[in-house]
Amino acid sequence: MKNDMLTCNMDRMEDKIVTFSKFGDAGHGGITRFSLSEAALQARAEFCNRMKTMGAEIKTDDMANIYAILKGSEDLPGVVMASHLDSVRNGGNYDGVLGVLTAMEVAETIVTEKISHRRPVIVMVWTNEEGSLYPPAMMSSGVVCGKFDKKAMLASKSPEGKTFGEALKKSGYEGDISNRLNPKEYIAMLELHIEQGPVLEAEKKDIGVVEGVVGMVNYRIRTYGQSDHAGTTPMKYRKDALLAAASALKYLHQELDKLDSNLVYTTGEIVCHPCVHTVIPDFVDFSLDARHQDPEVIRQVVKVIENIPKEFDKCRVEYELQWARNTVAYNKELVGFIKKNADAYGYPNMNIYSGAGHDAQYAAEMLPTTMIFVPSKDGHSHCEPEFTPVENCWKGANVLLQTVLDVDRK
Amino acid sequence: MKNDMLTCNMDRMEDKIVTFSKFGDAGHGGITRFSLSEAALQARAEFCNRMKTMGAEIKTDDMANIYAILKGSEDLPGVVMASHLDSVRNGGNYDGVLGVLTAMEVAETIVTEKISHRRPVIVMVWTNEEGSLYPPAMMSSGVVCGKFDKKAMLASKSPEGKTFGEALKKSGYEGDISNRLNPKEYIAMLELHIEQGPVLEAEKKDIGVVEGVVGMVNYRIRTYGQSDHAGTTPMKYRKDALLAAASALKYLHQELDKLDSNLVYTTGEIVCHPCVHTVIPDFVDFSLDARHQDPEVIRQVVKVIENIPKEFDKCRVEYELQWARNTVAYNKELVGFIKKNADAYGYPNMNIYSGAGHDAQYAAEMLPTTMIFVPSKDGHSHCEPEFTPVENCWKGANVLLQTVLDVDRK
């Protein structure tokens, strides 16, 4: 690290993490902070207060996304640092919120150290990234970027039957549509996030230079057998859909393991009918989620799935594509800034693709965007044991700070 | 068939099947007739009326089991033909009820044809064989034979919270404990039942000569992995409990297939956690039910299960025995009568073991017992497509009739 390089303040970083972990504290190390819930509104109020104290102007758009704006010295498009404050049920204190807290720390450093900047520097909070109470995930970035229909989103219902639209109205954060993130007033969006995987930790890297979000396909594989009594049907007459599903699952693992070693694929969900210990299953349905940055590898995955044998263990096998997502490549210049700044601080780093979805992937369709990853202890995310040491958070904030200043100079 | 052999009446047999299929008619070919429900009480009333018309005396015991007694010419222990009138939800018109209807037809033939008999001939209805509303199955035979505690059974609750005891009180069929089936007043119990499997049909046999009920073991097999994000966890770091469960299931099938070809085993139930398509499963639990008449084969099954590798695909594997049942052998003399009578009528027949449980297996612990199986179309049971052609029902009744007369001569 060059001696003259600016850094954020590690104590302040820690204070932010500790403070925000109280909003929605579930009592055993994690939080439940659904978007626009009381806990989320507490976190938003704390965010707005702190940003106002720094001299930021607060705006919100029609999806309750918050923009805390530190004015620049010139009338130029702004640099946005954005993430989300909401969590999954019994989530941790890092997924999402760390992107907001590091952005706040970057802003506080700029203000405290009186760093001059030409462009507005914006700390932004996306509403309902997790979609835990009101699906889908990445709801407001999807609306702002034109992926989702706003009316349909307002009608999205919680399991208790409350709509997102009602929660939005009640929140006090509903603002004007003209305030939405847009490519005219903003030049770049940066999002810091925990990796949510074990790679950085295993490879002993402090910073993940995120090149993009991997493409994915999601299939259902189904096997059709014959339901009969467990005690009275000789083996030779059986068509056991669960045995066939196990065969199909093993077959797919075997074939997919032959493809690129960076491919990740998951058979995470299984449904068995009738699922009674005394009855031979007649129907099994399992999911297959496969992700890779190279569309050619995804094509190979599709080929494996679509060439699966039509029958296993005398049971018919079918597949159905549920959805697919193309690889999203982040802005090369911004990715280059992240890499340069991590190197300049002397932080071990590596290029990485995001396997999970983030608001940044939608934002990338509108304006130059990239992400910074920091390590996740044991790769945990979406659970209470989620953890990133404060020093890693601080290092991430430092890289974010320098990148904001790089963009400011553009 | 010898020219002078008595037979039951096929038209009367059909009338009985058609009549009883109305009680609890579910509207699409089958019935829902939970024990002591209104539909079951209608069937009981029809049974009692018809038996009274034949001159039978009706008694009930404290579990509402019904005994319709045709007096014999001597004061000797009686011959019981018994089965049940209750069904599972959306069950068929044969499982259970056919045993009662063939017994009624045998009684009607004896009365109509004025066949003299020394012993009382009893048509008996067991209460709550299915245990569909008030578990467990084979409830009252279990109580009468001392397997189940009556107090606990009276407290058994339906999903709506009504107890079996209340239903019993309300039914009007609660009788005296001294009327229970017992080895002093009764010399044999015979139960005709559909096979509930495809063997007789496939082997083109009219009659299954049931030698006993197979022994069984029931295990749970569990795999323990690590839950992580589907998109962010490289394959080499994964511990996928569902992949491990598929491996364990395939391994067990492969090893158990090496044992006796009459062994039946079923992996019918599977539970996966968290069962989300974007999360690697950390826990899977599946059932293994294995049945065979030879305790040695069951011992081999136990050996296979208990020697399962402790790990598949980096996941820990555990097993747990849930319950076991020893093989029940039916009375050899009675089994011999069934065989002899089927042969005498010229009905193709084969010896067979029951894979399912029946009231007869509990009765067998008190007095000489056996069963007659008739074919199940496509092996179906516990479902609406359950079907046995009336000619097969009638043939079964004929064998039952001759066997009652054999026992009468003892």
TrEMBL record, chains A, B:
Belongs to the peptidase M20 family. The lineage of its organism: Bacteria, Bacillati, Bacillota, Clostridia, Eubacteriales. Gene3D superfamilies: 3.30.70.360, Zn peptidases. SUPFAM superfamilies: Bacterial exopeptidase dimerisation domain (SSF55031), Zn-dependent exopeptidases (SSF53187). Zn(2+) 2 binds at D95, E130, H382. Zn(2+) 1 binds at H84, D95, H193. InterPro entries: Amidase_Cbmase, Bact_exopeptidase_dim_dom, Peptidase_M20. This is Zn-dependent hydrolase. Its cofactor is Zn(2+). GO terms for molecular function: hydrolase activity, acting on carbon-nitrogen (but not peptide) bonds, in linear amidines; metal ion binding. The keyword Translocase does not apply. Binds 2 Zn(2+) ions per subunit. It comes from the Bacteria. Keywords: Hydrolase, Metal-binding, Zinc. It comes from Clostridium muellerianum.
